[in-house]
Amino acid sequence: MTRFTHPHATPTSDGQLDLDVLVVGGGHAGIEAALAGARLGARVGLLTLDLERVGEMSCNPAIGGLGKGQIVREIDALGGAMGKVADATGIQFRILNTGKGAAVQAPRCQSDRHRYRQEVTAVVRAQPGLELIAGGAQSLLLSRAADGRERVVGVRTEAGQELRAGATILTTGTFMGAVMHTGEQTEAGGRVGERSVEGLTQSLTSLGLTLGRLKTGTPPRLDGTTLNPERMEEQLGDAVPQPFSFSAPEGAFPPLPQVPCHITYTTDATHQIIADNIHRAPMYAGRIKGVGPRYCPSVEDKIMRFPDRDRHQIFVEPEGLDTDVAYINGVSTSLPAEVQEAFVRTIPGLEEARFERFGYAVEYDFIQPSQLSHTLAVREVSGLFLAGQVNGTSGYEEAAGQGLLAGTNAALWLQGREPFVLGRHEAYLGVMVDDLILTNPSEPYRMFSSRAEYRLLLRSDNADRRLTLRAAQVGLVTGERGLGVEAKAERVHQTLALLGSQRQGGQTLAEILRRPEVTLDSLASAHPALADLEPDLARTVEVEVKYAGYIQRQEDNVRRAARQENLALPDDLDYSLLSGLGGEAREKLSRIRPATLGAAGRIEGVRPPDVALLGVHVERHRRMKSAGVS
Questions:
Q1: Are the C-beta atoms of 152 and 145 separated by less than 8 Å?
Q2: 116 phi-psi bin (left φ>0, alpha ψ -120 to 50, beta other)
Q3: How would CATH label the architecture of 478-556?
Q4: Whole-model pTM?
Q5: Can you say how many angstroms the Cα of residue 520 is from the centroid of all Cα atoms in its chain?
Q6: How many Cβ atoms sit within 10 Å of the Cβ of residue 487?
Q7: Pairing with 42, which of 188, 301, 423, 603 sits 20 to 30 Å away (CA)?
Q8: How far is residue 438 from each of residues 52, 77, 133, 371, measured CA to CA in Å?
Q9: CA 204, CA 202: separation in Å to the nearest integer?
Q10: pLDDT tens for residues 192-220?
Q11: d(Cα 421, Cα 433) in Å, to the nearest integer?
């Protein structure tokens, strides 16, 4: 596939630097960025507004989900912390979509919000080479790079301190230029109890970067002791919970007691109260200009966009073992407090609810991600990397994955090493980065399995076999862990060979296993060699056999795509001179400048005829070059 390079030359050593890598923001992206950089031997500083809120779960107390659970497994396969912390602090584990195919099944856990923050902070503090620094970034520090362009060399804090670093990674989440909305009330801040970051927007725009405005929201939190579970459906976790981490310790899992969630629904009365007060919602009143997440709409959006629906599902989720607070998933809202009280109390089980915190919306600045390279470095400004919601994504998992990649590439860039870039056929992380850069989303980007065209190859069960060896080669995980994955892969291979060679009743065991009603466990009773296979390997083997034809087809598609993907577009190609190219395609190709024909074809607004025209031009260019014609 495509060979990527860093967009800027490695800077010469500067003895005046305080750090190799400075990460700005202590959320999920910042944590993984800082940890990855430190694992690669960089001196890393993590600058955060509040040392007590590192790794805060600002919205729902959960990790994983459709598309997201696969990302968590990939983060773990690459040596990241999120999966291990989720395992240590989860209070309900479920595999979603078990009634569907293996490609779209995904792990999810309900987390203890307080314990998650404590656990991940302990991981950060224990990482050698990583320093936590309290404070906010006021502006970027600049110098001139060797090519004459401006280069970022750290930040100036709000206290006036200069923190100088070889590479700076912004992971500011929803805090940059942030404003919180509840009804007619507004307040500067990216999260309740925390102020916004004001100076960085000006620094970024002064560098010529294009910013936009997005919006997110959160639901009210209720006192769980005032809710009536008898009026709701109980939702239990899996009888045999499965961990996120491939290196989960053997023994009793999960380590914490498990608790149920509950399901309830909005009613006609709920909808009527919201409709009667929709003019007081900041988005509908025109006070919010940012675009909200399409796939996580506010309850007022649900009511107005889907008037034919007589009810909407709500999940009542506990926030932890030592608190009575309940998170009301599905009721994100920024309506006034008194309206929230009125409509929430029309929902079965919530009639006597006492509010711990009202819902609110947050509007914030983000960088249009088409300005990044696949390393998550800003293409036009040396020394600056971006990760997380500042790139226009939503969700802890998407942020953490970007953070890991940005931290890795920042360290590799400073060390003069090749970048670490994952392809769409290799990881959901590769799909996400490619989507962000080439489609430049105009609304908060959320990962779904449907975004991955090779999703049967990118299952959560095989993330370690896909990625851990590459991580070991780079230095993100130990060589010992890499050898362990090699041994696991060999065990899977040997079991598949056994199933393909041993016969029973005139058929191979693999042919028998392909029957829908047959499982590996049922075969193991008659074939002892299959009986001692670990449960996670048994699941992998079963999927590899039952979906063998589909897997082979996707692998063939990857090879075909590679031929187009690898067709390099000339660096000096002037798209304005190509007749027949669509106007939108010409503008976006000139601005984004994709490296290959495959990348060009994934840019929004570039049509198949445009790709065909480019292919003809590249082939003509290749022939002329071979013939010595300039």
A1: no
A2: alpha
A3: Orthogonal Bundle (1.10)
A4: 0.92
A5: 33
A6: 10
A7: 423
A8: 37, 26, 34, 10
A9: 5
A10: 888 898 899 999 999 999 999 999 999 99
A11: 9
